[in-house]
């Protein structure tokens, strides 16, 4: 039986590096942000490479969910799904997530905003997904009767082996040494938006050293960071320790 892992992150975290780590396992296949086209179609937002994204994926929420809960590509034992929390708009059905082992990848909002605005100047609280991530976390915690796994990006960078071992244990899958390093370059599994967002990860061959998280924010970004922080801190209270 296939184990489906849904990893819920906001933008500008180490979500693509985490996807690389899982994809490097011999027992795992991955999917990159499968709801991105549906999200862009519903919101009309002007993201980098918008038309290419819309052409590359189904825009039908239910069709995407059916694919995610169907047979894993190649019959893989593990199907790792990289999701952006802000893609899951209010009103979108979430029943399919009950067929996944859901985990949550977090990063401090100040660091997210500083990184995000390098790529896209305009940003709102909804764009960075903190509130939605908390809603998804609370929903899964209610379903399980306990907190689902939470990992902090900088903790993974500081101790990849320790944190990935802890994450795999929490997801009830075996840790693999193959998760610690991977070949540089682009993947067929990468979304078509890779040229706009993945320049750093394409050069990587593993998890780099922890990033400097202190960020000097523009004045207009500080209220967004303040609004996001309670949601971040709620999840951070449950993060895994190595």
Account of the 3D structure:
This protein has 242 residues and is of the alpha/beta class. It has one domain: P-loop containing nucleotide triphosphate hydrolases (Rossmann fold), CATH 3.40.50. It has 12 helices and 5 strands. A 5-stranded parallel sheet has the order 2-3-1-4-5, with helices on both faces. 40% of the residues are buried. The model has no long low-confidence stretch (mean pLDDT 95). Keywords: Amino-acid biosynthesis, Branched-chain amino acid biosynthesis.
What's the CATH class label? Alpha Beta
- Provide the spatial order of strands within the biggest beta sheet: 2-3-1-4-5
Number of helices, counting only DSSP H or I runs of 4 residues or more: 12
Q: Main beta sheet, described?
A: 5 strands, parallel
User: Structural class, from secondary structure content?
Assistant: alpha/beta
DSSP summary, beta strand count: 5
- The stretches of 5 or more residues where confidence is low (pLDDT under 50) are none
The gross shape turns out to be: globular
Radius of gyration: 17 Å
**Average pLDDT, to the nearest integer?**
95
Within CATH, the superfamily carries the name P-loop containing nucleotide triphosphate hydrolases
Q: In percent, how much strand structure appears in the residues? A: 5-15%
- What's the multimeric state? single chain
What is the N-to-C succession of helices and strands? Answer: EHEHHHEEHHHEHHHHH
Count of separate structural domains: 1
The fold-level CATH name is Rossmann fold
Task: For the record, give the distance between the C-alpha atoms at the N and C termini, rounded to a whole number.
Answer: 28 Å
Organism: Caulobacter ginsengisoli
InterPro entries: Class-IV_PLP-Dep_Aminotrnsfr, P-loop_NTPase
Protein name: Sulfotransferase family protein
Family: Belongs to the class-IV pyridoxal-phosphate-dependent aminotransferase family.
